[in-house]
Specification:
Elements (H helix, E strand, L loop, with lengths): L2 E3 L2 E3 L1 E2 L13 E4 L4 E3 L7 E6 L6 H14 L6 E7 L3 H11 L5 E4 L5 H5 L3 E2 L4 E2 L2 E5 L5 E6 L9 H9 L3
Parallel strand pairs: 6-7, 7-8
Antiparallel strand pairs: 1-2, 3-9, 4-5, 4-8, 6-11, 9-10, 11-12
Length: 166
């Protein structure tokens, strides 16, 4: 799989996940610096909205769009926005943009998500852009690795995949 960042090819660390795989367990950091464990979401449909940094226009739009979409989804669905931003920056972004419907987590510390899901860009230690949808049993039902990191994810296709699970 070829991924580019601003037109330049980058190297992803880890193996990309694919539909049908069991979602790897990972730990990350929540905005209050507590530990997030993906296992805590078992039994729910999870959308992992993956982006490099909320300080960019495309990443900010992605978080805001999913925050809005979350209002129209079932309570059995959790949207996790995951970036390499520090938890303090994520908390500030959420406060400034009225983001209340996403679980915002940072992969900055151990980079477990990036490595286990194959999203970590070796050259920048940022996450590539994409979406992973996990069903209630923990199986991956949809994956998108955006070929050009500066482009948007396919919101409609991801939300279609989610609606098929509820």
């Amino acid at each position: 799989m070829n991924i580019t960042f601003a037109g330049n090819e980058v190297t992803l660390i880890g193996q990309p996940v694919k539909v049908g795989d069991m979602a790897p367990e990972f730990k990350a950091t929540e905005n209050d610096l507590s530990e997030f464990n993906s296992e805590s979401l078992k039994g729910k449909v999870v959308i992992y909205s993956v982006a490099p940094s909320l300080d960019t226009e495309v990443c900010a739009f992605q978080a805001k769009r999913f925050n809005k979409e979350a209002l129209e989804l079932s309570d059995d669905i959790v949207i996790v926005q995951i970036t390499e931003d520090l938890p303090f920056a994520q908390a500030r972004f959420c406060a400034n943009e009225d983001i209340e419907n996403l679980l915002m987590v940072s992969d900055y510390k151990e980079r477990e998500f990036g490595e286990k899901y194959g999203f970590l860009i070796d050259e920048f230690k940022l996450l590539a852009r994409g979406i992973v949808v996990v069903d209630k049993e923990g199986k991956i039902s949809y994956v998108e690795y955006v070929p050009e990191v500066t482009n948007e994810v396919n919101f409609d296709k991801a939300l279609e995949a989610v609606k098929e699970l509820i």
